[in-house]
Specification:
By secondary structure, this protein is mainly α. Helix 4 crosses helix 5.
Amino acid sequence: MNTKAGRGRPKKDLKEFQNRNEQILDAARLMFASRGFADTDVEELASELGIGKGTIYRAFPSKQELFFATVDRSLEQMAGFIKAEVAAQQVEGLQKIQTAVKAFLHFFDANPAVIELFIQERAVFSGQGHSSFWEHCRKNSARWETFFSDLMAQGFIRKSDPRWLADTLNQLLYGQLFLHRMDGSQQSLKSKSNDILTIFFVGILTKEALRNSQALGIDLGGLANE
């Protein structure tokens, strides 16, 4: 019986191809962050990795595409890190917000180069009206809107536009990244999490949830009773 030859890249080769692309993106992230977009040289990057420049260009046809692929992969890693932290702590409801915020800031403590990429993206490509971070937020907005709507139905947070809540929290977090990088703070980003959470929770929680914040596992630094 005749069988058709399988098409496409063999699984082993595909895995090697994916691993090599990840190595390229990891190295590119550090080079873009340390040198800036304009001074990053793809040929030097290839030499650093011990591969040909053509290998990089076959996967990423231009330096701009390489840059955006680097940012996108960083955001995927961020999302995976947050998801793993939430799963590991087995939290739900308000504690899920608390854990996610702390994990978000912890990720950028460990990966400050990603903040540099965000800064460069706004500086170099501002005319394109593109923001990888906000595109990532938009892709995940429906899930967070449902989450906030459920908390409203349970009486934990005040009735309001769930999309506005998600956008506001993202703005607080995104802004903190830039402020932290610009002021040269020696404190960790994660140490700022309670400040952000207190502002957010005091603004959105119902009176009953504020009174019961400790029982709900939420630390508001004593503001719940003021």
